[in-house]
Amino acid sequence: METSVVQKSTAAADKMTTSMTSSVTGMGLGGITGLTAGISTLTCMREQQVTIGGMPTNYVPGLSANYNISSFSQRPGESRRCPPAKAGPTARLQTVGTRLSHSSRNSPNTQYAHNLICKLADQNERRRRQDTIELIPQSYYAQHPLKVELTEFYSRDNAKDHHTDQYDLVNDTVLPNPVIRRGQNFFFAVRFDRTYDKQQDVIRVVFCFGPKPGVTKGTRVVLQVNWNTQQGVFQHPRDVIGMGMGMARSLPQEPTTTVAPTGPVSTICTVGAISCIRETTNYGVRRSSVSNDPLTVSSQNSPLSPHSSETYTTRPIIERYSGTSQHPSFGRSYGSRHGSSQNLASIVQETDKWDISIQRQDGNTITFQVHVPASAPVGIWNCWIQTNRLGQRDNRNDYKCDEDIYVLFNPWCREDAVYMDNDSLRKEYILNDQGKLWCGTWRQPIGRKWIFGQFDDVVLPACMYLLESSGLEHSERGNPVRVVRAISAMINATNETDGLIVGRYDGVYKDGVAPHAWTGSVAILERYLTSGGKSVEYGQCWVFSGLVVTICRALGIPCRSVTNYVSALDTNRTFTVDKFFDRDGNEVPNGPDEDCYDSCWNFHAWNDVWMQRPDLPQGYGGWQIIDSTPQEEAESVNQCGPASVEAVRRGEVGFQFDTPFVFSQLNSELCHFQEEENSDWGFVRMASNQNTVGRKIITKNPNREDDEGDGDLLEITHEYKTIESTSPERLAVIASCRGFQRLQQYYELPDRNNEDVHFDLMDIEIVPYGQPFDCTMNIQNKSNEDRTIWCVLTASSCYYTGAVSSRLRRAQGEFIVRAGQKEVLKLHVTAQEYMDKLVDHAMVKVCAMAYVKQTRQTWSDEDDFSLHKPKLQIQVRGTPAVEQECSATLSFQNPLSVHLTDCYFSVEGPGLQRPRQVKFRDVKPGELVSYQEKFVPTRQGESRIVVTFSSREIDDIIGCTAVTVRG
Q1: Catalytic (active site) residue 276
Q2: Whether 769 and 683 share a structural domain
Q3: What is the per-residue pLDDT across 273-298, written as a single tens digit (0 to 9) for each?
Q4: Where in the sequence does UniProt note compositional bias of the Polar residues kind (predicted)?
Q5: Which of 269, 291, 137, 292 is nearest to 203 (CA)?
């Protein structure tokens, strides 16, 4: 008798473990105690009772003794309701004792009758069970929801169709992350603990984005998997799921609708996006006891293949996709609807929704196809898989997938706002991970090779953190207009914000890295990410521009770096850059009222991003200007753009964002004022032969590469400016921006009828670093009388922002120019006079001023040029191969007659060498420097290695060469 009781208790415990999954999960000691009480009460239950039409279908001998009316009203999937009992080891004894005590009070005939009815009932139920066994679905014997054992997102295979196969995150050997583009389909597979039952099992795939995902905000999507036998909706008959070690099984050529519980199944189904399901679950807690720990692939069978006795060492892959090419954006066929013009709108509307379908079922493994709409927010999404039985939603298993799903913009998708229809331009502005940033002057542009490195494994995580720090709502991150505006604000770091990099322009970089020492964006982003989001030091406009290119291209937004030469910074909204000089020709800092901070930068780099502008009238899409350099606050933040290039070209300054500011950078006037005692307000405007603002606008030519020179320069001034500087249209735009006309009187030139002396400041050609130069001014007296001329000629070292650093040499005087004669004034500057006074970019500003006493004619002009530095030569020996060490020789000649101290090289090359700095010894005067750098390539194909040399005496010596790596 005791043995029978123990056996029955054991069977009841096994059954209760299954039937009480959800009630035990997450419970403490109280839950365990309740389970013990339940086991003690159901002493005779060997199998859970299931009924159809009120009749028991899984009868086991011995159950009749415990029959009551409630057993016939039990619903499938419910546990038997039993009277409560005390928990503990005495509960069973109390129950048995009560029964025996009751039986002892009856006569033997009564006991016999009780045993007889139980026996007869047992025999009857055996007969009924045999009659009804064929009517019972197999699912009734598996009442627990599906449990997820493993997921596979096929990161590398999906990446090929999504143009993301170059991302290091996709090719990671430990935990590859899927990087997909919106507007396309992707595949992922799930292995469950048993075969999916389409009649009773419910599967929902939930995608969440952000800390508080919500369905109504578009940051939480619930997709329920529905089985449908309609064919022709999604047809991928040649898709194959690999089983590892080259073993794969192909799907049938035609989809089937028959479900076999023990064989591979190919079933077509349609699914509608569920966007209004109300959930009460906290997704931070898993409601079942399913383990989410990643399995060690090398020690078990192929994770998403049917179990076998063999051991595979590789993860399963989808060997081939057969997505139809009938529509490049959808990547799928719409059966009979495809090609129907009247249904085109409905097709587009449908593709703008999340969508899921079962692509293949193979035993316990199901491969899903998910469509991400072209308007989905961009960022890191998480995937949850919910499973429950039909009608038992409270008894549910939630499984959170380990992978972070990176969703990017898609310039290959027509429905995406960043769509670009030129494949060669997409290769340049999305896939090219290296390029040029342009510095120098408008006469002598200098291209700096820059490694964008948007596919590096640190870039996408850093981009996501920057977006989080920007405060941009997660629901708005599908709008490229809002995203690029946030990027323009988060690149620069100010006192109020923790941006990516700190701007500095005074030449003091001892506590950080000098802007000219960077070779690319990766080192900056990695330092930012590993420091916990601390701003990196230091950068300037062209560094900011390079970082913007990296981040935008990484996120899938077409982007290019643009340099504007002679770029105005108008701080008082007058559309002029004002400079004031006293009677002796000395500049008055910040103007007479000390409130004028206008400046004219020798060059300024910003970015163009490509997108539609649905917030503007038609025709203003395409390239949009964003500027991440902290020049001007907009909405209390240092940000600028996106401003339509077409709107700037037309002078439509009323369109968002920051169009008037950008227009002023290209179209402002340069105005010099000299102190004049006869003037009503104390100053008079001086005539000038200065170059106009926005003199030249350039970018890299997408169809050319020139590592040695600047043959890949592309001038795009015509895209930004068509209005002549003196045209009425331009003046009308400026007047409307100023808001009132009375300011114009201060910018009118004095009467020039009496001007009879011509002045000209000569351009300075290339001057090698370390060589002297001459500043030359030509004077021609065109009158019939002698003229007494007072003039000033000054040479100064300057920053590229136009600010003067140090005066190199100055000459002034008064002399007479005879009638009809010419005079030439020269100012000679030696290398010793400028060597220790030069700052970034080795720029020199030459200023000239003149005053004619007889006619009170005034004149001024400026010219800027950069001293030419030697090129750094790079020579790679042999033919580099993947995973084989090779070397490159770096060499240049010291152009100075002094020692170079505090020397170091900065080296970087995508797939060749991660960014690093190498300290180097002191360099002797005139020495030919040679240094050998060793590296191990990690990927085949063509790449480039970029090197810069810096020292205390000379810096910014740059070299670049192409390297072809064989596999």
Answers
A1: no
A2: no
A3: 323 333 333 333 333 333 333 333 33
A4: 287-297
A5: 269
Which residue is catalytic, options 604, 672, 841, 868?
A: 604
799 and 891: one domain?
no
Please give the pLDDT value at position 736. Answer: 64
Say if 158 falls within a structural domain: yes
Mean pLDDT of the chain: 76
Question: And the tokens for 743?
Answer: 């300011």
Residues 651, 682 within the same domain = yes
Exposed, middle or buried by CB within 10 Å (0-12, 13-18, 19+), for 471?
exposed
**Catalytic site includes residue 604:** yes
Among residues 239, 627, 861, 864, the one annotated as catalytic is: 627
The CA dihedral of 60, 63, 67, 73, to the nearest 10 degrees, is -40
Close Cβ partners of 891 (under 8 Å, ≥ 6 residues apart)? 872, 873, 875, 928, 929, 930, 931
- What lies within 8 Å, CB to CB, of 731 at 6+ separation is none
pLDDT mean over 378-407: 93
- Give me the pLDDT at residue 212, please: 93
What's the CATH number where 798 sits? 2.60.40.10
Q: Compute the 3-state secondary structure of the chain and give helix, strand, coil in percent, each to the nearest 5.
A: 20, 30, 45
Tell me, yes or no, whether 859 and 880 share the same domain: no
Q: Return the pLDDT at 34.
A: 38
CA 652 remoteness from chain centre: 31
Query: In the prediction, which pLDDT does 500 show?
Result: 94
> What domain range includes position 953?
873-965
Residues 6+ apart with CB under 8 A from 211: 474
Tell me the per-residue pLDDT of 838-888, one tens digit each, with 9 for 90 and over.
998 999 999 999 989 988 888 888 889 999 999 999 999 888 999 999 999
Active-site residue flag, 828: no
pTM of the predicted model, to two decimals? 0.75
Q: Among the options 401, 413, 463, 541, which is catalytic?
A: 541
> 18 lies in a domain?
no
Q: Does residue 196 fall inside a structural domain?
A: yes
